[in-house]
């Protein structure tokens, strides 16, 4: 009988504070990446609906308010609910004046400051100002002003809170990761080979 190594799920794991913090950051990433994977399908649907609108307009001479609003709904959903996914993949455009010239600790410090000073306050302002706006839309079950439009504008407006909430979640993951890097002992001053 051969001895098998334990699988990663059954192997004992280090459950120290750093592992717990890293596990929480990874869990937040998984949530946002799962939402991003689902919302990513909006891009394909957006292209198909837009192509259908063009075909209807130029080949058949017909239009559809419902289809045109669907493009807006898909675009808004993709951008608002996909933003945290993009942040989790470090895919946002960044002005790398400082970031590119620093080592891991310097980049972690820039990320920590940027997240704490810019991202979190902006996401909180969006959440707090968007709350009343979304609540009002839900209270009246706001729909399209057009008779043949999509009767669910309140759902689209809800994506504003999703945007802010998911960005706040990803900001927590970013802060945790930056904190882990900054909490590690610095190698500065030890072996300085190659310099």
TrEMBL record:
PANTHER family from the UniProt entry: 2,3-DIKETO-L-GULONATE TRAP TRANSPORTER SMALL PERMEASE PROTEIN YIAM, SLL1102 PROTEIN
Organism of origin: Marivibrio halodurans
Membrane topology per record: Multi-pass membrane protein
Alphabetically ordered keywords of this record: Cell inner membrane, Cell membrane, Membrane, Transmembrane, Transmembrane helix, Transport
MF terms (GO), sorted A to Z: transmembrane transporter activity
Family to which this protein belongs: Belongs to the TRAP transporter small permease family.
Function: Part of the tripartite ATP-independent periplasmic (TRAP) transport system.
Matches recorded under InterPro entries: DctQ (IPR055348), TRAP_DctQ (IPR007387)
Lineage: Bacteria, Pseudomonadati, Pseudomonadota, Alphaproteobacteria, Rhodospirillales
GO cellular component, one term: plasma membrane
Membrane-crossing segments per the record: 38-60, 66-87, 108-134, 154-176
Compartments where found: Cell inner membrane
Protein name: TRAP transporter small permease protein
Main location: membrane
Coiled coil: none
Residues covered by the Tripartite ATP-independent periplasmic transporters DctQ component domain: 53-177
Record flagged with keyword Metal-binding: no
Subunit structure: The complex comprises the extracytoplasmic solute receptor protein and the two transmembrane proteins.
């Amino acid at each position: 009988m051969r001895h098998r190594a334990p699988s990663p799920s059954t192997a004992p794991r280090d459950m120290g504070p750093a592992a717990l913090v890293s596990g929480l950051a990874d869990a937040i990433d998984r949530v946002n990446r799962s939402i991003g994977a689902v919302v990513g399908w909006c891009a394909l649907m957006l292209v198909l609906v837009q192509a259908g609108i063009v075909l209807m307009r130029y080949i058949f001479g017909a239009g559809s308010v419902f289809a045109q609003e669907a493009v807006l709904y898909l675009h808004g959903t993709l951008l608002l609910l996909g933003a945290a996914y993009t942040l989790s993949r470090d895919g946002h455009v960044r002005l790398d004046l400082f970031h590119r010239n620093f080592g891991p600790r310097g980049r972690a410090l820039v990320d920590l400051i940027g997240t704490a000073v810019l991202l979190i306050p902006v996401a909180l302002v969006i959440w707090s100002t968007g709350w009343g706006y979304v609540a009002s839309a839900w209270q009246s079950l706001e729909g399209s002003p057009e008779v043949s439009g999509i009767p669910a504008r309140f759902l689209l407006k809800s994506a504003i809170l999703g945007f802010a909430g998911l960005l706040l979640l990803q900001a927590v993951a970013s802060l945790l990761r930056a904190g882990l890097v900054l909490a590690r002992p610095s190698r500065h001053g030890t072996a300085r080979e190659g310099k």
